[in-house]
Amino acid sequence: METVTNSLTNTNTQAQEQVLDEMKIWQSLTPEEQQRVTEIKNAIDITDSQAILQYGVQAQSNISSFSDTVLSQIRAKDSGRVGDILTELMAKVNELNVDSLSQNDGLFGRMFGGVKSRAKKFIGQYEKISVHIDRIINELEKARMQLLKDIALLDGLYEKNIEYMRELDVYILAGSLKLSEINDKIIPELKKKAEESGDPADAQRVKDMLSLANRFEKKLHDLKLSRMIAIQTAPQIRLIQSNDQVLVEKIQSSILNTIPLWKNQIIIAITLFRQEKALKLQSEVNRTTNELLTKNSELLKTNSIEVAKESEKGIVELETLKKVNRDLIETIEETLRIQKEGREKRMQVEAELKNMENELKQKLMEVKDI
Fold first, then answer.
1. Phi-psi region of 29 (alpha: psi -120 to 50; beta: other; left: phi over 0)
2. What are the coiled-coil residue ranges (predicted)?
3. Alpha carbons 252 and 86: distance in angstroms, whole number
4. What's the DSSP call for residue 15?
């Protein structure tokens, strides 16, 4: 390995940048890979044209096949479908019109079933839309699982790409070392021998070696192009993974946050609607009751007066008149007493109702502050 290191450092200025790159590759290799570089370098025979043609071909084939695999994965993916499903989900959520609960009914509508009918219609619409949303969620869940599988698959592809790239590094570095040895040692020795001998055969050997070295250099260039493909593939794989992860996060947010929140708000809207309508209905009942009480009171007064008038008509005994008079006085007194008690009770009820209203408001304020 010391020989390899020395070979990398003994270069001219023109090739200094290339040597630095090769040194970085060498240092990044494991001891086993460095040993393999040395073995491959020593086994290279550039005079064997078939061996040179096949040099690094397996690593290049792996890169080519791998690129086809990645491309097929990209073609097979339909990320746009996930976007369509999410768009459909939002459209279904927006179909349910909560404002329809707040439409005004007439008096009879409020008293007799208009509220119930509208709430029932709204709930039926919600249940119908909910079925579609559940189907969409199932599709999203399937898409999420597929995306998670794709992410795991791309992790494996990324590691395989790194493996192929390191394989190319081994062949490129071994070839570069061999080419440096040919240019710096073998060719100068052949040139020196040809100059000393003057033999045309020796001169031809120099030309042949220069031609072989040139061909081998082109072969190494092809391997470097394949390596660049592997380098470009790595960020492409990570970009695809990143896109998949974004889609997974959007799907999970829709399933775990958006839909449950939407359902909760629908339930709250229906509950508040029913409470509001119940309060209004109770108010109508109280008003009607008060009207009936007032009318009955007036009727009682009228009837009492008419009865009194009728009792004065005709000739009757004094005792009867006295008894009638006493009964009337007692009736009036009792009526006044009852009315007084009624007023007092109503005042107590009104005071109690006021207290109950204040307590309810206080509790509602406490709930709002939580």
1. beta
2. 339-370
3. 11
4. G
Contacts of 64 (CB under 8 A, 6+ apart): 226
Q: Tell me: the pLDDT tens digits for 264-308?
A: 766 776 676 667 666 776 777 677 777 877 887 788 778 777 776
Q: Are residues 219 and 322 in the same domain?
A: no
| Chain centroid offset of residue 267 CA | 24
CA end-to-end span of the chain: 74
DSSP notation for 81-147: HHHHHHHHHHHHHHHS-GGGGG----HHHHHTTHHHHHHHHHHHHHHHHHHHHHHHHHHHHHHHHHH
Taking the C-alpha atoms of residue 276 and residue 291, their distance in angstroms, rounded to an integer, is 23
Domain membership of residue 228 (yes or no) is: yes
Reported as a single tens digit per residue, the pLDDT across 169-194 is 888 889 889 888 999 899 999 899 98
Q: Which of 311, 315, 346 is nearest to 329 (CA)?
A: 311
pTM over 0.70: no
- Number of domains within the chain: 2
Does 324 map to a domain? Answer: yes
